[in-house]
Amino acid sequence: MKVGIIGTGLLGKAVATRLLNTGHSVIVYNRTVEKTESLKKLGAKIANSPKNVASESELVITIVKDASAVESVSFGSDGIIHGKHEKLIVSDMSTINPISSRKIAKRYSEYGIPMIDSPVMGGRSLAEKGELVIMIGGKKEVYEKCKSVFDSIANKSFYLGENGSGNAMKLVMNLQISILALSISEGIILARKSGLDPITFLEILNSTYFKTGMSVNKGPKMVKGSFEPSFFLKMMQKDLDEINYTAEKFGANLPFAKLANQLYQRAVKDGMGELDYTGILSYLEKANKLES
Ligand SMILES: NC(=O)c1ccc[n+]([C@@H]2O[C@H](COP(=O)([O-])OP(=O)(O)OC[C@H]3O[C@@H](n4cnc5c(N)ncnc54)[C@H](OP(=O)(O)O)[C@@H]3O)[C@@H](O)[C@H]2O)c1
After folding, report:
1. Is residue 196 part of a domain?
2. Are residue 7 and residue 137 in the same domain, yes or no?
3. Can you give the CATH number for the domain in which 202 is found?
4. Can you say how many angstroms the Cα of residue 12 is from the centroid of all Cα atoms in its chain?
5. Per-residue pLDDT tens for 65-118?
6. Ligand 1: nearest atom to the Cα of 235
7. Distance from the Cα of residue 171 to its chain's centroid
8. Would you call 141 exposed, middle or buried from its count of C-beta atoms within 10 A (0-12, 13-18, 19+)?
9. Strand pairing report for 26-29 and 3-6
10. Which residues are catalytic?
11. Is there an atom of ligand 1 within 6 Å of 273 CB?
């Protein structure tokens, strides 16, 4: 399949890199064109609009910030719908809420364009290794047509049902991640306040059944105060908005999700939005008058 990628931020660039490195023909568009330069060197074709990406691709994957960005690249004046052709399929990999995702899929269907949602677990480094996990919502036969492309970037994909199901599951997943980052941060702070070495806290945690990828891979970096972003803290806060909106719409009462959002919101307000999401530790340390 000829693949188009719209949005070459942290995740989109890594997905496009993986597709190029596995022999796919890839055309990309990004609103800020400078972020496509490294992909051009790897052999990507650079388009000057989402419309042009669509007219030259069989599968267009949108990987942009939020639902309004998805709508803009989809239905805007130079949007994907204007590049429509018979074989075109759209797959939205952005993390948005399932209600918006369903509305966007319905709008695409009015133009005769099949759309699925395909949000992912895993960031830049897993994308570049082809080890993402993809959650799919939409028509199964549409997903099956795209499967070979998904298999290049992910080691597992889960088909979950109607449009929006992938996004609903992705929000369930990011609820875990946002709260886990808070839990490890509070553990590091309590260890420090108790006069204990937080690295020993992690060593003990990682010797038990309760270890996680985050406590193994990100924990030591958190203790060192190293928050180079693989997923921006401001993006996690955006996802907590989506989690809380979805909970309200679907009638779920989630006290932790509300509290987590308040903490991430305050960290963004304090200028920490461009740290990795695990930089929530920095915000809590500041509130505790601790230096990392
Ligand atoms: N990074 C990860 O590990 C990860 C993992 C899973 C899911 N996600 C999700 O993937 C999506 C992208 O995240 P990211 O980490 O790649 O973020 P990022 O580095 O901040 O990139 C955001 C992308 O969205 C584009 N964008 C924002 N607003 C736009 C608009 N109005 N019109 C057109 N393009 C717009 C940006 O274009 P400009 O460059 O012009 O600003 C950029 O390409 C988000 O929904 C995020 O939640 C990310």
Report:
1. yes
2. yes
3. 1.10.1040.10
4. 9
5. 999 999 999 999 999 999 999 999 999 999 999 999 999 999 999 999 999 999
6. 47
7. 10
8. exposed
9. parallel
10. 170
11. no
